[in-house]
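FW: tagging you since you asked about this chain on Friday. Here's the raw sequence from the shared folder, copied in full. Didn't touch anything.
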Amino acid sequence: MKYIVLLCDGMADHSVKELNGKTPMEAAEKPNMDKLAGKSVQGLCKTVADDLKPGSDVANLSVLGYDPKKYYSGRSPLEAGSIGIDMKPTDVSFRCNLVTLSDETEYSDKTMVDYCAGDISSAEAHVLIKHVNEHLGIRPFSFYGGVSYRHCLIWDNGTIDVGELTPPHDITGEKISGHLNVNQNGKKLLEMMEKSYDLLKNHPINYERIKNGRRPANSIWLWGEGTKKILPSFKEKYGLLASMISAVDLLKGIGKFTGMNVIDVPGATGYLDTDFSGKANAAVKALKSGSDFVYIHIEAPDECGHRGEVQNKIKSLEYIDKLVLAPILKAFSKVDFKILICPDHPTPLDIRTHTNEPVPFLIYDSRACVNGFSEFSEKTAKSSGVFYSSGESLMEYFLR
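HL: got it, structure written out here
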């Protein structure tokens, strides 16, 4: 038996006026998902408890069957592990976004224009992070380059008691003054953010980006603090050899810390230009080469949700259906397999950030005969009456 999780990050949504009240899941042409829906179990799952923040870190741990209240210690340590940083128990790590801020003189008067600096390339970003580290990476602080706009700061013998650090994707278009609520410890971080603007605004890379009509990466933004946490291996927990496929360091870190085979797919970016087919091919190869379980994480729907891109979010689901799901179904048409399709959390277009509402899921078992629905959507999942109160309980059901 082979087990596949197709995790469509942020796929679930609210009804959209522009789509005549439909959600992107309802509006998308996704014949493969909808065909599976006719012979699958659908339902809702509460992947993020009401007292937890609905980040992709918490939500993906939950879907994988790791109770966040037990195993979560911050987002950034997972990303640091993926980058290859060997954190000490006394280290504190922070996600370091490269962002675009407006050009007011006072830092606190600026607006969060773009949390990802126009999808800056990793090559450009690494030059900028190196520049930041050369000027601000003075003990006990060190900066490390990641993928695209996602990077890492390590604070040697640091503290997580720094005040409130807001994810930049939650405040797009807002003045940052209301989101600089740091305490005395956090002032060191705020000072680095302020200094980074002066370091980066006139950097040659940003000069070229502006010249070519692209947004400059003119500031760092620190958030997602945490300490290193030991996770039991997926093999130990479920008895299955597992592989992780993702473009983002967060999921690669989760895969690494849970003992999965972490597969790098060239051309995987985390947005609409990612290599969808490459991810599908990597999954098929992994399952045919010894893996029992593969977790295919696709970031594009979430990114489109954060940016309020209605048509692109629909397009991302159509790409997933055609370029990821279709070849997987074809490859395993004569093999017993189960597939779970779900988001980790909703990323509604109307609010452009995550919520902890229950997510729709679909489980297809090639051995089972199920009378399902004509489509896979938030509405059909809710109407089934099937509900799981945690990602851990859903994973237990899926595997057992």
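FW: Residues 2-72+232-399 form a domain with the Alkaline Phosphatase, subunit A fold (CATH 3.40.720.10).
HL: agreed, and DSSP finds 15 helices and 13 strands in the chain.
FW: great, closing this out.
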